[in-house]
Amino acid sequence: MQHISVKAFAKINLGLLITGKRPDGYHMLETVFAPVNWYDELTFTSADELSMTCSNLDLPSDDNNLCLKAASALRDYAEMTKGATIRLTKNIPFGAGLGGGSSDAAATLRVLNVLWGIHAPSDDLHALAVKLGADVPYFLESSGLVFASGIGEQLQDLERSLPFHIVTVFPEEHISTVWAYKNFYPKFERKVPDLKEMVFELCENKDLTVLPTFENDFEAVVFDYYPSVRQAKEKLLEEGALFASLSGSGSAVFGLFDRQDAAEKAMQAFGDKSRASLTPPSFKMIQRS
Ligand SMILES: C[C@@](CO)(OP(=O)(O)O)[C@H](O)COP(=O)(O)OP(=O)(O)OC[C@H]1O[C@@H](n2ccc(N)nc2=O)[C@H](O)[C@@H]1O
Ligand SMILES: Nc1ncnc2c1ncn2[C@@H]1O[C@H](COP(=O)(O)OP(=O)(O)O)[C@@H](O)[C@H]1O
Questions:
Q1: Residue numbering of the annotated binding site for ATP
Q2: Which residues line ligand 2 (CB under 6 A)?
Q3: 74: burial class by Cβ within 10 Å (0-12, 13-18, 19+)?
Q4: Which domains, and CATH codes, for the chain?
């Protein structure tokens, strides 16, 4: 009985600029994905049927779970009906803007593609990933700092890594991505800064003056409706973060620190460890099946 265990890491968005809306309702955006040291754990075991368990009972363990959606999409693609038992230990908060569900879906595609002996080419897996979620291709194909455009599926590896300690905090608010895209305040006329260039200046020259460029277009509406999220960002700055921002559509916020002791002190200021994570400089998603 084959058995594969992997980690599915979370991401933050360093800058998130929404530049337009497509006829199908999806929004065009420019963003930089960065992996953080917060991960779900998944175990896949060959079986006759396809099923899963999830440690977080607030999440579905049926076809509404992105793991089973990914597994079913792969079975349909390969026109086969092999089974597997998927065990998900959920550590990444959901509705947090951390991409946890998308990361789980990507891990499922990657592992079952091997476990079931399908060996689908990467372009085909990419097409399946995009249908599962705009963020899924990032987790499937990348391990580090990536510029994303389109709806978030067009990826360019920036071949750089952040020289900062990252403190990521979940302020106990579940925010729906759909709600955020429906209610954000559009700034489509804005001159869009070159996030790739800003990342180069930040990582290569440690030019901190570029940090205000990394705006998140969801922040204004999220802070209006969820004051606790604004307060979490302010607290990170009070604790000495060089920069702090909402991640994705929220509610998680992250702060960049140049010193480990300041980052660890900031972690402690947020109390309960299970709702915060510390990522070292130059972090990459290393777990690959
Ligand atoms: C906002 C971002 C930023 O990285 O991440 P999260 O905050 O969810 O982590 C992403 O754009 C979320 O990607 P993902 O969570 O995969 O979204 P999907 O499941 O594909 O889409 C959920 C819904 O969000 C809206 N959506 C999503 C992506 C996009 N570029 N434009 C959109 O308008 C659509 O209404 C869609 O039906
Ligand atoms: N395995 C999963 N992990 C997290 N969320 C899941 C999963 N399967 C389905 N979902 C649903 O997908 C939604 C988005 O999850 P997630 O990708 O974690 O969003 P976000 O990046 O906004 O936190 C959740 O609100 C949840 O209802």
A1: 93-103
A2: 59, 65-67, 88, 94-102, 104, 177, 248-249
A3: buried
A4: 3-157 (3.30.230.10), 165-279 (3.30.70.890)
